Amino acid sequence: MDPRLMHYARSTRRFIAIAVVLGALVALLVIAQARLLSTAIVDVAQGGSPLSAIAATLLALLVVIVARAAVSWLGEAIAYRSAATAKSELREQVVDHVLHGCPLGPAGQDAGATAALVTRGVDALDSYYARYLPQLILAVIVPLAVLLTVVGQDVVSALIVALTLPLIPIFMTLIGLYTRARVDRQWATLARLSGHFLDLVAGLPTLKIFGRAKVQAEAIRSMGERYRSTTMGVLRISFLSSLVLELLASLSVALVAVTVGVRLAEGGMTFSAALFILILVPEAYLPLRLVGQHFHAAAEGLGAADRMFAILEAPTPTSGTRADIPIRPAIHIDGLSVTYPGRDSPALYPTTVVMPPGRLVAIIGPSGGGKSTLMSALLGFVAPTSGRVVISGDGVDIDFADVDVAAWRARIGWVPQAPRLVSPGHGPTTIAAAVRLGRPDASSLDVAAALDAAGVLAEIEALPDGVQTLIGDDGQGVSAGQYRRIALARALIRQPGILLLDEPTAALDGVSEAAIVDSLMRARDAGVTVVVIAHRPAIVNVADVIVHIAAPAQRGVAGMTDSAIASAEAKAMDWTRTTLTGSDL
Amino acid sequence: MSPVRQMWEGMRGQRARIALAAFLGFIAAGSSVALLGTSGWLISYAAQLPPVLSLSVAAVLVRTFALSRSLFRYGERLMGHDAALRGLTSLRVQAYQRLEVLAPVGLARFRRGDLLARLVGDIDAALDLPLRVILPWAQAALVSAATVAFLAWLVPGAGVALALALLAGLTVIPWMVGHISSRAEALLAPTRGSLSISIVTSLEARADLLAFGATDAARTEIASCDCRLTELARREAAGLGLGAGVGVLAQGLAVVACLALAVPAVLDGRIGPAWLAVAALLPLAAYDIVMTLPASVIAYQRVRASAIRVAEVLDAPPPVTDPPDPDPAPLPPLVMQCSGLSARWSAETDSTLRSIDLSLGTRERVAVVGPSGAGKSTLAAVLVKFLAYDGSVKLGDREIHRLGGDAVRGDIGLLGQDAHVFDATLRDNLRLGCREADDAALCDVLARVRLHRWFETLPLGLDTQLGARGTAMSGGERQRLSLARLLLADRRILILDEPTEHLDTPTADLLIDDVLGVTHDRATLLITHRLKGLDCVDRIVVLVHGQIRAQGTHHELLAQGGWYADRWTTEMEREDVAAIAVSIPPGTAMSRGRPG
Asked: What is the ipTM of this complex?
């Protein structure tokens, strides 16, 4: 039982309470059934009562049986209901946590896996709730109840049960401790061998290229053989614990039966007590045996829960509270670096830049150099590992760590590298709905104006459905260039003080690119600070500030000789001068 | 043949072992029934106050059954697992042989590692077929038959009653549970699917939602979908719980019926009074064994789903077949000549080649360029006989569809986008190219592909473990390793299919230079969408929408204009931006004055 399950899925507590009550009920019914059954048998076998004389007992037995059936039906039904609720509780928290910025690794890559975990994966919890937990509770209640009942009938039998029952967990623990090291070692080999088949299948194209594919069938056979013998080594040991469990359970039943029988023959106890004990004692061991059987299903459910707990326990970026952000802030980046958890080298090496208000800042550099990470830091998606960002203007300086991130983001228009146009809560995504994500209360005129500013209005109005055109998940319905410019309109409609754009013209044709560059220049001229990651000269050419972001190993263009660097520098100087002349005119 | 049947056929060789395991399980389950029966008899007989010694046989039997129940169960589990694992090995070999025919074109949709892992997991699910389906059923049926036979001998009426109850436990109840659970699954699946879609959509767009302060709207949408699913699941709970209750009810009814039918037999002296307890307790014990069957129906449904998915893959038509009577290998000089070549990647895709005429002379170096989706990889697949084609592809004087696939690939080598690094030592990974190569040759080839620096950092040298559980390699290092393997294999014709596809620009530039450098002495077909370095090849072919648009040298194509010239300009622009970067120290900015 993982206490985190009770913590995160609160309905589990209620369920456990109900399961305890039902468990007690089951214990009572089990005892009643044994009592009625033994009475009926004794009455006939010893007293020679006719069927009519035991009819009342049999009727009572039937009632108990129906009640037992009802309780087990109720128990499972409640378990499945609780499982559904608990799964929903867990799901909601995981989705919440992830939506609030819990890091998932590279964008989107894990979205499918996380969705699979919280929809299909959690179904493994069904068996945990419906079988394992109730059985665990029964394994505590029923043996105790049986023991108490047997004490009242016959102390010797009670002693046998009381001595053997605790032996089961003790022996299982001892065997577990004794064999753990060996089993662990075997499991490591096992994991390796089982990965091998996948490795060969994944490498099939390569094997075929070298004409080595067909002969590997023999390797798979011999590896399977090794896998089998190693697995059997593990199983011989791990089945031992269930052997001990079964052995203890059946031997103590046998012991009780034989001792009771002998004392009965010597006249030391009554038939009815003896039969009652015999029917009852196996019931004390049954739930313990069943717990073992359901352990596998339980482990699977807990595995899924564990993966969700791991997500829930990952920290989300924190936010400050200051919302007095200047109208036209300058962004001072001072020695900012970011290292993702679990990585050795920084994603962004220390960077010092001033981004003045109302300027166009181009960020250039090789891929993997940290450009997108810098932008994530400016959006508050990642926390700096060292250094800081200061927002200044209107005579105040605010450390970014103190800024209310939601208020800050409300000032930003962002166009990510791979924008996703969505409109949650508004049904299928139309162009207008996608743009309104930037400002939900925007009028149709505002939407048209934003699309116009992004240079895409004319093309959209030419579509048969205009701004009501549906955009599919992968952007079906509009072209790649239109998709990006709609994303730009979504950013512009916020009337942001700062525009952050990640390669807004990648893979666009010249016309789309020119339209975007035009809008960026107009935004800058209107006083917006425009920060743009650029790979193409069209944007770099019009930038006021150029920031170079690269890992030290990527300094310059990797692999360039000194003379090549010199000529590249000459070219760059040349180019800068041209641009300056252009601006001067 | 149904997919499960097919899976079972694949484990054919293990039937004797599985039968033995079922027998051991039968003895174990039978012992547990007999344990309760004998104990009941012992106590009932003892109640008649016989001499204590007369109980000794029954007492020994009770202890024996107690021991044999546990020991035979242990034996059954070991034997069953042994048989299942052996069966799995032969299934894996059969599946591999089939996958070998399909790979790589027939497995293209498994390019994502997790899908492939799922396929392999589905094959492994076959373990449950004997362990969780066949064995439980076989034992339950055998024990039921034996118990019914014994009870029928004792009290015929009770035997019939037990037979009816057990028959229900063997057939109707598991069928009902299976039906209810698959009905619930069918009901829940669409709702779960739409929940999954709304979660995926929101999670994929989560950065956008966060930045635009729209996470609450997404949460509300997911919550309403979740609510529907949970409500449906809660409604289905009553049905899912029914199986447990029905089992308990059937067991109880059987006990009461057998008891009631045995009472007259005791009273009129047909059986001794000691047998009454036996008649009541046998149904109790036997039914305990049958009650595990609903779980095995669920296991069966799972195995079946896996078997269907496996069959879908393995029963797909192969993308290309070897002729039963292949022509002898072609003789040098090996000129490759495609004429009127048409091919398509799969029935569903448009990635089609149409009427390609292309030649590659000995030692000639030709580049095939074009936008993604133009059919470049389809061409590579055809040339190494991974894919069937129409028209003609000649290797020397032979048509390649008349040659065996391995024979074609004995002359033509391929370096793909992401060649596999096996979970094995560096030596074994390299020797894939040439099994006879000694360590000196391996070190030599590592130097040729410029991996010697990396190699020197490996403390275990050629014995270093690579791959999933071994030393991590960068993308560039992996491609260089694959290149080394290809050089060792010493093929006369090399096809390089986007060898720099997944690398960053500087790494890609260095790699492509080296690739072209070490392969200068053999016929090479370089497939790429990047144009850097192409000024040194003999001829460039521009492939757009599956057709050859232009051919010529770098300078000729630049002069012609069109896709090649446009692409070249774009690439040069990137170079220009990179050049500006050189003048600015990383992590700092350069500011330019702006009027106004």
From this structure: 0.85
